Amino acid sequence: QGSRTRTRKSAMGITRNSYKKRRATGGKQPQYRKKRKYELGRASANTKLGTKRVRTVRVRGGHTKYRALRLEHGNFSWGSESVSRRTRVLDVVYNASNNELVRTKTLVMGAVCQVDATPFRQWYVQHYGGELGKKTEDDAKVGKGVAKKREARLTKSGPVDASLGDQFRTGRLFAKIASRPGQHGRVDGYILEGSELAFYLKKMAKKKGKGKD
Known about the structure:
Blueprint lengths: L47 E2 L3 E6 L5 E8 L1 E6 L4 E12 L5 H4 L8 E5 L1 H11 L1 E2 L2 E2 L8 H14 L4 H9 L1 E6 L3 H4 L4 E3 L2 H19 L1
Parallel strand pairs: 1-3, 4-10
Antiparallel strand pairs: 2-3, 4-5, 5-6, 6-9, 7-8, 9-10
C-alpha cells in the first residue's frame, strides 16, 4: 500500500496581535512574523436569556474559563440596603455600546437589564415589616419588640427612592450586569438607584423617543 498523505485545511484564526492595527498616523504596519499561539482570540459567547447552558474552555496555563451560552438567574445586590439575592433576569433593556445587543437580548458586562423584584420585596417585608411604606396584615401579628426593632431600622435607613418604589410596584427592577458571562459563566450585578438610575432612565426615554419618530 502506498503512503497516505493527509491534507490539512488551514482556517483563519482570530488573533489579537498589534501589527494588524494601524499606526497613530494611519499608516499600515509590516507583518514581520506569522501568528502566534499566545496571541489567539476566540469567538464571543453572545450569552442569551434562557435555561442555563455553560461550557468550559481550557485556556493558557491550563486554567479554565466558563463560557455561558444561556443564563436566566444571577446574584444581584441592593447597594443602599447591603443585601444580595438570587433572582431571575427578565429582559435586556439598554446597552451603551450596541442596540443590536438589546434586540437580541444578549447578556454582557455593562448591559442594563430588568430583574424580578420578588426576592428583594420579600426581604424588605421581613426586615422592615411593611411593603415599601405600606402597612401589611402581618404587622398586627408581631410582638412589640419586633415592631419597635423594625421601626428603628426604617428610621435609620430612610425612605426608599420614589423611582425605585415605582419599580417595586411593577415587579421589575432595573439592574446593571457587573460580571462577564462569557468569561465567568455567571450573570451577576447590582440594582440601579440614585443618580445612576436617573441617568439610565433618561437614556432609555431618549432612545424610546427616537424610535417613535
